[in-house]
Structure formats: structure tokens, C-alpha cells
Structure prediction request, 859 residues.
Amino acid sequence: MMREKPLLAVEALATFYGRAQILHGISFTCDAGETLVLLGRNGAGKSTTMKSVIGLVRPASGAIRFAGESIFAAEPHRISRLGLGYVPEERRIFAGLTVAENLDIGRQAPRPGLAPWTTARLYALFPNLAVARNRLAGQMSGGEQQMLAIARTLMGNPRLVLLDEPSEGLSPLIVEQMADAILALKAEGVGIVLAEQNLHFALRLADRAVVIEKGLAVWSGSITALAADEATRQRFLAVGVEA
Amino acid sequence: MPGADQILVALLTGLADAAALFFVASGLTVIFGVTRVVNFAHGSLTMLGAYCGWSLISRLPPTPLGFTLGALATMLVLAVIGAMMEIGLLRRVYRAPELFQLLATFGVVLMAEDIVQALWGVEDLALRRPPWLRAFVLVGGARFPRFDLFVIVLFPLIFLFLWLLFTRTRWGRLVRAATEDRDMVAALGVDQRLLFTSVFALGAALAGLGGVLALPDASANLGMDLTTVTDAFVVVVVGGLGSLSGAALASLLIGFLQAFGIMLVPKATLALVFVVMAVVLVLRPNGLLGRPPGRERASGETQAVVRPAPRALGLLGLGTLILALLAPFFLGPYALAIATEMLIAMLFAASLHFMMGPGGMASFGHAAWFGIGAYASAFAVRLLAAPMPLGLLVAPVAAAVMAALFGSFVVRLSGVYLAMLTLAFAEIAWAIAFQWVNVTGGDNGILGVWPASAFAGPRAFYWLTLLLTTLGTLWLRRILAAPFGYALRGVRDSRRRAEAIGVAVMPLQLTAFTLAGAAAGLAGGLYAYGKGSVFPTYISLGHSVDALLMVLLGGVGTISGPIVGALAYTGLYDVLLSVTGLWRLVLGAAIILLVLVFPEGIAGGVFRLWQRMRPA
Prediction:
């Protein structure tokens, strides 16, 4: 029997901003129920990779396949409708809408094979949102906005979620909640591509890692291999792992 | 002092005016909120609504039911027209720079004028008024049209309808979300195209309603497109772009201002509204209920660096200049007069480009400085009997002084708000020229501004114009190539970063604004002498739009752009005028075609082709 193709496959992705080339060749795959982390320093190209995949930035060359279809340079709403969710680094919640209204914007039809997300389930996952459901999203704290951004994307019942630095700028307590939520997602069988600078967070959640440096995927392997590979971490991430 | 009855009638009149303003402005503000397109053609949609409404209602029974049916049918027709405009034109230019979307809507304005004229003729069309439309109610001792009471009642009803639509339906929530961040809405799986088309259809239907409801009290006429869109802009900007409640509030403010203004200061009504708008924008740069503009455009869309002209272009310019010098020897007086106008247009366009392209400050009222220069020359000649050199010196100086004065308010703003404040100042200047008849001659203008005898002949005046406009244009170009120009472009691309490295942003922009005003003033002075007269139309919105069209046609990103644009626009205008009565239709279509084919303007497009042909 042939091995089933990965849910998301990105190959030799190259992207420009104007004349400046940002991505020089990024390749990775991610399966359902798997968590892949894109690691790299600030400006390495993690966010641009995600924006290129979801279609917010038009990639110049390469190939992107999702659920058996090419989504290279496709329109964002079509990509999203296929079940690819995106949670941007800046969160981009709709500040003038209430929490409940924000969730409604993300709503899509249930997807076969996945237990559909409802507001009730999401409020259970993020209790803070339940309390604040009628408040304007712009009046919430950074951590709550991050939860809302994730919950809003989940309303679309994605098969795979691109999570851009969900731990950035959050207090340790909220980061813990975020990690729990990501593990819960994983347990549901959702594929997760995580962009991170926070190595601890990544080591805890991810199965595999791709290290990006100056727009190029320079290392890829299992998370245990990365934990063991001091040289790679030193060279590309410049942080050690305390024992 | 006005009596209580008068005040009550003024209140009701103000409410009726406010309602009429709101119908049009609400559509404009919703369209802007979602699509970020400043729809200059919104007034044209209102005009179309008035004409369509006239045709439909005239054919229906003259009853309230007939009128209502006609109004609803008109809204439907306009919704279809709006959707077609969005699908056929605007959808293709959402990713283009904002100014190009503006240019596209200008194209629609021009085409709509000729289409309406061709279908309905040049006469104003008033509705036959059956008794129920002529009925009055007595307010105290005064009479007030009953139809206007109906319009007043409709105001809160439409507001409530829109408010429920935007807060209680998923479509409305999507519209509000897209107003904040349309890319994110797309990334959540929402097809923006459907949303944008439906928003445009709704906005157009509301504009159409505004047009129909203007019929009983006024008439359908060809001038209403620009007057309506100017009023609607004022309301939308005062209320805050994209804010529905803001539009309602501003409609009330402007409606009452007009109603009481006529009662209290009848001679300054036109200026009054714009004075209030200027005051609001100075105090609250985002309008009464507006929020600061949301997410800036993604990086990578900064404009290309303007480099010194390549050698070939320099030679071409030199060749053209020599040709221009020799032109009087083989051109007749009529052609020479057109060539003179082209040169003046060139300087006018170059001055606007100076602040708009490298300066990043788009102006909807650049004709103000042109007109102030022209009037300054005219006053110098008529009041002081000044000789021509003095008259020509006064023009740029007066324009520069006024530009510096107004500019100190303008440079506090940016983007569309800045452009709207320039429009406000231009409209104030226009209103003064138009309404202060004792000094400016009003609509009759000032005549007898003839050049000195040495330059009275068309050839001599042409050479003088060639000398001054060329010097003026080169001077602007020289400034752009100096550190001042670099700093100016730096501010345009990133105000904060420029500030952080020590650029004094506001003084810099004010200087640029003043210099642009001076150059436009010189163009105006030359024009006054060339025509021998000045009129308020020199300051009109139409003239400001001419300058915008020239710059945008040529392309904002190149220095030669405005020169090419001015020559192309003036040339096209004169050629078309002599060939066809439908010159606006052809010009509008040409502009739309240009926007779709060359989104970076003529000069920019040619430059791109040239670069592509060159071996890498």
C-alpha cells in the first residue's frame, strides 16, 4: 500500500517583498495530528512562510499542496475554506467587534471526520473568553486576544492550523494555558505548524522541527534530535537548553 | 432677530437637509470603510438616481404609491449599476495605490456626465408635482413642505435599518470586520469579492435614494454630481471615515449649519460649511467619531526610488525643449495659445506632483493656489495698476503666503483627511471668489488683465511662459534631487523613522507645501495674463481634479510623469473637444483603460517597458 501523502507539503518556497527576496527555499511537511515547529531568529522568515502558505503574501516559486490540492498563490479565502487555519502573530482580532462577533466571523461549515467546534466548546477551552463574550475585543488583554485569535480560527473547523508565535509577549501563566490548548488541539487530530522563537515552548509541544535561517530551511528533524544537537541550536538559535 | 417660527422652520429645513445628506454620505462612508476606495463617482450615482427616478416616476401614476415604487425601482437600478462598477472596474484595482482607485472613479465621473447628457439632455428635469407633493403644513405662521416632513421621518428609519443591518446580521458583522482588517477576514475563509460587491450595491442604492428624494424640491441636473460628492465628502470626513453614526451626526451638523447659515450669514453660506469642516479636522484629525486609520499597507508596496533621468530621457527632454523654443515659427496663433496653456498646465501639474509624489501629500484642492496666484495678479493689475513683472511676482508670493498659512493646518494630517482639508480650503477660497462680489466680481470675474505690450503678442507671451514654466519645473526638480527632497521622500515612506533620525517632519512638509503653492501660484499668474481675466472656476473642484488627473495620468512615481500627464491631458482635451461632443465619455473611458492597463501611469508604464526591453 502507498503511503498517504502529507496533509500539508511545502516545497522550495521562494517569496519576495518588492525586489527583496525573503524566502530562498523553504520545504517542510505536516500531517494530521502532528505538530511541526518552525524555529528561527527574528526576521528569519517564519511569518513570511506562513503568510505565503495562507496566501496573504504571493509566493514567487515553489509548490504548496494541502489536502491533495495545490494551493500555491491561491486566494486566502479559498485556502481557508479547504480547512487551513491561520492565526497571525499580531493576532489581528477585530477590535470593534465583540468576542462573540469575532468568533462568528471565523465560522465555517463542519468538516467531515472532525468534531465541529462550537462556541460552547471554545468557551470551555478558553474560559476567559466565556466571561468576556459580550465585551469589545479591543478592550481585552494581550493574552485574551491571543486566545480569541486562536478560537476564531478554530470556528472554521480547520484540519491544520498555522500558529504564528502564540507565546510571544505573554505571561508564563498564559503561555501555560496556550500550551494546554495546543495539546488539546493535537489530541483532536488537528495538524499544527507552529512558528516560535521560544525553544522551551517548542520542545514541549512539537514532534518535529524545521530551522529557518535567512529564508532558508537549514535543518530539519525530530524534536528529540534537535534537543540532542547542541551545535545546531547554538548556530541557528543562539540559545542553550538548560538541563 | 429671527422669530420663533423662523427658527422652527430653519430647524425643520436643517433636518430635511441633514436627511438628504445622510442618504448619500452613509453609502459613501460604508463603501470607503470596507473597500478603502474614495469613491469620487458617488455623486454621479446620486445624479443617475435623480435622472432614473425622474424617468420612472414620470411614467408612474402621480400618487404616493407611484412615487414609492419609482424610488424603490431606482434604488434597485442603482444597486445593479454599483455592482457592475465594482465588478468591472474597482475590483481590478484594489491592490493598486489608493490614488489610482481615485483616478478610476474620476473616469466614471466623466463618463457618467456624458452618458446622462446623451440620454436625458442638458435641461434640468423637474418632476411634475401633483397636489400631494405641493402640500404644505403650517408651522406657526410659516409654511413647510409636507414632503420634507416625510424625508425627515425617513432619516432615522434608514439609520435604524442600516444600524440593524450592521449589528444584527452576519453580513453586517462581516462588513464591520472587513472595515477593520479585510485581509484577516479573507484568511478566515470569507470571499471578499461578494462582500465588496454587495457593499457597493448598497452604497449605490443609498446614493440613488438621495437622488430620487432630491427631485420634488429641486430637479435632476448635470451639475449635481460634483456638488453632491463634495457635500458627501464633507459629511463623511467630519463624521469620521467609515463611521455610520459619525455620518449621521455630521449630516445633522452640516444640515443645521446650512439652514441657520442662510438665515444669519446669507453672504457666507458657501464658505461656512468648509470653515466648520476645517475646524473639526484641525481639532479632531479623524473626524467626530472616526478612529485612527487601521493597519497600514503591507510592506513591499513602497514606491520605487526616483532616480536621475537616464541619459536618453535627458536628451529627449532637451530635444523637446529645443522644439518648444522653435514652435512659434511653425505654429499658428490658435495652436500657440494651446501650447501656452499646455506649458502652464505642466507647471501646475509639476507643482501638485511635487507635494503628492515625493511629498506623499495628495491634494483635492490644488487649484486654490493656482487661483490665488491668478487673483493676486489680477488685483495687482486692477487695483495697483502694477506693471507685469510685479504682477507675476505677486502671484507666487501671495500663493506661497496663503499656502504657508493653510499648510500649517494641513500638514498635521495625512492621507485622505489631508486631501479633504485641502479641498476644504480650496472650497473656502472658491466661495470667497464667488460670493464676495464687490471685491472679486463674483461669477463675472475680473477682466482686463493684459500683459505688458512687449509680451502682448502670442509669440512673445509663449516664450515668456516657456521660460518661466521651464524654470519653475526645473527648480522643483532641482529641489527633489537635493537633501531636502531625500528627506521629503523619507517622510513619505516612513514618518516615524524619518522623525527618529532627526528630520523635522512638519516644518519639512510645510516647506514643501509652500513651495508647491508658490509654483502653482506662478502658473495661475501666467494664466491670468494669458487669458486676460480671472474667474472663480480657476479655483473650482473641477480644476483641482484636472491637476490630479494630469499627475495621475503621467504617473506619480516619476519626475517626468506630471509633464507627460499635463501634455497628454491638455492635448487629449483639446483634440477631443474639436472632434466629438462626447469628449468626457472618451476621456473617461481612456482614463479607465489607462488605469486597468498602466497602473503606474503613462510615464511609469513606458519606463517599465523600456526597462524590460533593455538587456538585464
Observations:
- Chain A has a mean pLDDT of 91.
- Chain A is about 35% helix and 25% strand.
- Chain A has one domain: 8-237.
